[in-house]
Amino acid sequence: MTTPSLDREVEKRLHGHDVRYTKGRRMVVSALVGADGPKSAAELYAEIGPGVPLSSLYRTLTVLEEAGIVVPHLGARGLTRYELAEWITGHHHHLICVQCGQVEDVAIPQPQEAQVRELVEDIGSLVAFTPMGHALEIEGRCAACT
Amino acid sequence: MTTPSLDREVEKRLHGHDVRYTKGRRMVVSALVGADGPKSAAELYAEIGPGVPLSSLYRTLTVLEEAGIVVPHLGARGLTRYELAEWITGHHHHLICVQCGQVEDVAIPQPQEAQVRELVEDIGSLVAFTPMGHALEIEGRCAACT
DNA sequence: TTCCTTGCAAACGATTTGCATTGGA
DNA sequence: TCCAATGCAAATCGTTTGCAAGGAA
């Protein structure tokens, strides 16, 4: 589920952080590439299997986050899910099901995205705060839970 | 830090859920009224003091959430912060400091808010998802961390 | 009296870490 | 060779819960 070019880029980033792109880490990246939204360590463990124990998954996710390859997303009941950073997936937002907790990525049309970006900049200039990023989190019911 | 009218409304809601508006619960509501953003159980405990033990704080927050008086906000490292529901505070968004983790409320001008609301509706009609609410989370650096 | 509420301590679940072992450049 | 990476188990940390005591209607 990984493309060679992405793999090379990830490897380069990891090398820049003096860490190796090992088999276990490749499996995690690959699982995230195939995902349609953020995944928790437990979800990845279920998908990848016991070949990569939970503690290694957590360590891998930490390393990937430090290298800017994945980004955490905080979910209900203290669950942290990770997804590939936006330089890989492209900028997007989240649909969060209030019933089952699943999170799905959604990209919004360019003009609207520009609106949002502008809005965020405006807010930053009004208050003492320097915006660096934004996320529109939409809560509701997913197709399966309707 | 609480107004009599708010207190009465809260009491009414709690009664509707067959729970009492006790001293401990009043202290939590009062602390939240005086807050400028979501607060975690630990933060409330630090402010209110050991008069209300952590376990009671958690129970109180759960009760208040079920009664629609507070709403959870998920923060880094599995921390859940609570704030008063929007029928009390008014609709608003969050400024999240990437450095210190503090969350601050911010309201955006009505026309822009309408834009966002419309955008969310549009997305809902494009994908199989029924939007019920939205939150624009703006990450950046707060005044103290700049 | 009758439930709701509280406090304490024990239990939980997600995540982190110590340490000895393995593995890649 | 040498240091990063791994696996396991134990430890942490925020949060939840069982249970007996306290309190309001």
General description of the model:
The structure is a homodimer of 146-residue chains. Chain A has helices at 4-16, 23-33, 41-48, 54-66, 86-89, 110-126, and strands spanning 39-40, 70-75, 79-84, 93-97, 103-106, 129-142. In chain A, the strands form two sheets. In chain A, strands 1-3-2 form a three-stranded antiparallel sheet. A three-stranded mixed sheet of chain A has the order 5-4-6. The two termini of chain A are 30 Å apart. The mean pLDDT of chain A is 92. Chain A has two domains: 1-89, Winged helix-like DNA-binding domain superfamily/Winged helix DNA-binding domain (Arc Repressor Mutant, subunit A), CATH 1.10.10; 91-146, Ferric-uptake regulator, C-terminal dimerisarion domain (Dna Ligase, domain 1, 2-Layer Sandwich). Chain A is α+β, with helices and mostly antiparallel strands. Chain A contains six helices and six strands. In chain A, α3 (41-48) crosses α4 (54-66). In chain A, β4 (93-97) and β5 form a beta hairpin. The structure holds a DNA duplex (25 and 25 nucleotides).
Number of strands of chain A: 6
| Average pLDDT over all residues of chain A | 92
Low-confidence stretches of chain A: none
| Quaternary class | homodimer
Q: Work out the helix count of chain A.
A: 6
For the termini of chain A, the CA-CA separation is 30 Å
The CATH superfamily of the largest domain in chain A appears as Winged helix-like DNA-binding domain superfamily/Winged helix DNA-binding domain
Range of helix content of chain A: 40-55%
Strand line-up across the major sheet of chain A: 1-3-2
Classified by CATH, the class of the largest domain in chain A is: Mainly Alpha
Coarse structural class of chain A: alpha+beta
Largest interface here, residues on each chain? Answer: A-B, 40 and 40 residues
Q: Return the domain count of chain A.
A: 2
- Give a quick account of the main beta sheet of chain A: strands, pairing sense, barrel closure: 3 strands, antiparallel
The CATH topology of the largest domain in chain A corresponds to: Arc Repressor Mutant, subunit A
Q: Strand share of the residues of chain A?
A: 25-35%
CATH architecture title of the largest domain in chain A: Orthogonal Bundle
Radius of gyration of chain A in whole Å, from Cα?
Answer: 17 Å
- The topology string of helices and strands of chain A comes to HHEHHEEHEEHE
- Global morphology of chain A: globular
